[in-house]
Amino acid sequence: MTTHREPLDSVNETIGETPLVRVHAAPESVPVYAKLESFNPGASVKDRIGQYMLEEMLDRGDLDPGGTVIEPTAGNTGIGIALAATQLDVEAVFVVPERFSLEKQQLMRSLGAEIVNTPTDEGMGGAIDRADELAAEHENAVVPQQFANPLNAEAHYATTAPEIHDALDGRVGAVVAGCGTAGTLMGIARYAREQHPETFVAAVEPQGSRYAEVMGTEVEEGEYKTEGIGTHDPSTNELFDPELVDQVIRVGDRTAQDELKRLASEEGHLVAASAGMASVAARDVAERIRDGEIDAPHDTVVTVFPDSSERYLSKGIYDEFESWEG
Ligand code: PMP
């Protein structure tokens, strides 16, 4: 385990090398391990891509020193980019649909970023369009566009995936992760399939989301409360490669909330709804490997817990939330 014994020059040096911890409610014979991404300094999986995308764009000359990054984001990516920007000569502006948590928006502002809100009913698509408009008005501005930027998945291919591989000595039988941009899943899955082409890969989305359509399954579209994963318009999720996915698993908000509460009270994990969904799906895959329904190269399942429940306390994440369905 990384202990950061040496004094460090900046908090950004603590990004990555997060713990991989067993989820105990899974079958004994097919352990499930979760990568705890709230251990990053901005407390989510998105610190990795914030740092990776900005550094690569500066290196490649796609972003000039003194320039501005304008990004449509549900929040965690904004925090990750804003954190990286504090160490680089870059300004950050974020376009955030109103429905997303106020905690995230406060954190982005406190890291020095500017926030532009867009109407909830325009979804992420509205935020993406507004970011493009703002970039056209700004001089020396770029939109990393995490939904279409290969650097997003590459960040996970370069960091998250080898960390998982090393922690398990290569014994990765299945990868199960929630898909927002799908960068996390694509980066880890591509690496794992290169190690072992038969690695089982499952994408997780909320009921009501439309990723399953890309795999040829007709689904009913609807609203969901879980933040950070799912899509209402799969044509904007350009990183999602169905060739790298065996199955899309859909989980309801209520089931995710029951699981995130269970993860806290039984296992000590303070994680949010996207982690609850990932955990339910990962346990399901582990049970199917145990029962011989899935043929995986190793008897282990890896998932990702992307962030912490503290970020959603004002939204009543631990309350009896009648409107949470599924
Ligand atoms: N969970 C949360 C809370 C997130 O903010 C995100 C990022 N949108 C994800 C899961 C999914 O990560 P990705 O965008 O890499 O698919």
TrEMBL record:
Domain Tryptophan synthase beta chain-like PALP: 13-307
Organism: Halococcus saccharolyticus DSM 5350
UniProt entry tagged with the keyword Amino-acid biosynthesis: yes
PROSITE patterns to which the protein is assigned, alphabetical: CYS_SYNTHASE
Gene3D superfamilies from the UniProt entry: 3.40.50.1100
Upper lineage: Archaea, Methanobacteriati, Methanobacteriota, Stenosarchaea group, Halobacteria
Biological process according to GO: cysteine biosynthetic process from serine
The protein, known as: Cystathionine beta-synthase
Family: Belongs to the cysteine synthase/cystathionine beta-synthase family.
Entry-linked CDD domains: CBS_like (cd01561)
Pfam family, one: PALP
Cofactor(s) annotated in UniProt: pyridoxal 5'-phosphate
Record key words, sorted: Amino-acid biosynthesis, Cysteine biosynthesis, Pyridoxal phosphate, Transferase
GO MF term list: transferase activity
InterPro entries the UniProt entry points to: Cys_Synth/Cystath_Beta-Synth (IPR050214), P-phosphate_BS (IPR001216), TrpB-like_PALP (IPR001926), TrpB-like_PALP_sf (IPR036052)
Endpoints of the signal sequence: none
